[in-house]
Design brief:
Rossmann fold, seven-stranded parallel beta sheet, 7 strands, binds NADP nicotinamide-adenine-dinucleotide phosphate
Length: about 290
């Protein structure tokens, strides 16, 4: 577990901050500091969709805990961009598939940043395309440990800190919060011939979202998911198909892949009070796929 050093401190970006892509919308500015005084943890926040969610959450006034597994330089770059724009962020190493590392991750965040008010279960992996009858035990264990168990471990720690239950003890403000799980269009498409294991893991994440939302609806914690389609990130190369976005683009309804920012926008909406009556939902960000 490493922390990138003293958290950057500065004013909320909700009034003057710029989004990573276009300028902040008037609606965003008028909505005020959605995360003011609270921290959101984005697992796998160092690259792709997670990095976009980190930057956009900072614009919404969240202090951001940027988690990563291996690539500290990438996480530090996300932190530097947020701090450079006047926000608050710090990077935290930790493998979400390890219960011990997740416990240590949350303890480190408790010590470095304001109380937790949000969790984005974004860290996820794919693997090379194979049929189910060729899947090894090691592959299945990695797939479900990171994509499913990791989300459970992180949610457990977040709930303990955010629940408004009267008998809540331990760290945290117990002031409620929001959890956003990152699913995939694979959950409904099934990933045949490519990664049925990944699709099934994401299907599990969607059921997890529905059940956890109902468990926590009376405790001030909303739980939702986003379901991205084909998004232009490095995950495709890690699955052995670096040209996947280019190759599949002609088959996509909008004739283009989505961007990490387009998914990040849905994530920060679900984190914010702008979605205050939304829980147990799966928000499609698939460009109609
Ligand atoms: P990405 O660019 O490959 O980034 C993955 C991130 O997860 C990195 O920050 C990585 O950190 C981190 N990570 C990987 N294993 C981890 C672990 N065990 N513990 C903690 N962090 C870990 O992926 P992405 O495309 O942004 O995908 C983000 C999420 O969206 C995933 O859940 C993915 O399944 C989902 N999604 C993506 C797409 C798409 O087309 N891109 C579509 C649907 C759903 P390191 O670099 O340090 O390893």
């Amino acid at each position: 577990m490493t922390n990138s050093g003293p958290a950057g401190v500065g004013p909320s970006l909700s009034e003057g901050g710029e989004r990573s892509g276009e300028g902040a919308t008037p609606r965003r500015k008028a909505a005020g500091a959605a995360g003011a005084g609270r921290t959101v943890l984005v697992t796998g926040g160092s690259r792709g969709i997670g990095a976009a969610a980190c930057r956009l959450a900072a614009v919404d006034g969240w202090a951001v805990a940027v988690n990563y597994a291996r690539d500290r330089a990438a996480a530090d770059a996300v932190v530097a961009a947020i701090v450079g724009a006047g926000g608050q962020a710090a990077a935290f190493q930790g493998d979400v598939a390890s219960d011990a590392e997740v416990r240590a991750l949350f303890a480190a965040i408790d010590a470095a940043l304001p109380p937790l008010g949000g969790l984005v279960n974004n860290a996820g992996v794919v693997d090379v395309g194979v049929r189910v009858d060729a899947m090894s035990v090691e592959r299945l264990q990695r797939m479900f440990s990171i994509n499913v168990f990791g989300s459970f471990y992180c949610a457990r720690e977040a709930i303990r800190r955010m629940t408004t239950k009267a008998d809540a003890a331990g760290p945290g403000a117990h002031a409620g919060g929001a959890i956003v799980n990152v699913s995939s269009a694979a959950a409904k498409l099934g990933g045949p011939g490519q990664y049925v294991d990944y699709a099934a893991a994401k299907g599990g994440i969607e059921t997890f979202t529905i059940g956890l939302a109902k468990e926590l609806a009376g405790e001030g914690i909303r739980v939702n998911a986003v379901r991205p389609g084909i998004i232009d990130t490095e995950i495709h190369a890690s699955g052995g198909t670096p040209d996947r976005v280019r190759e599949i683009t002609p088959q996509l309804p909008m004739k283009r892949a989505g961007t990490a920012d387009e998914v990040g926008e849905a994530i920060v909406w679900l984190l914010s009070e702008r979605s205050s009556y939304t829980t147990g939902s799966v928000v499609e960000v698939t460009g109609g796929r």
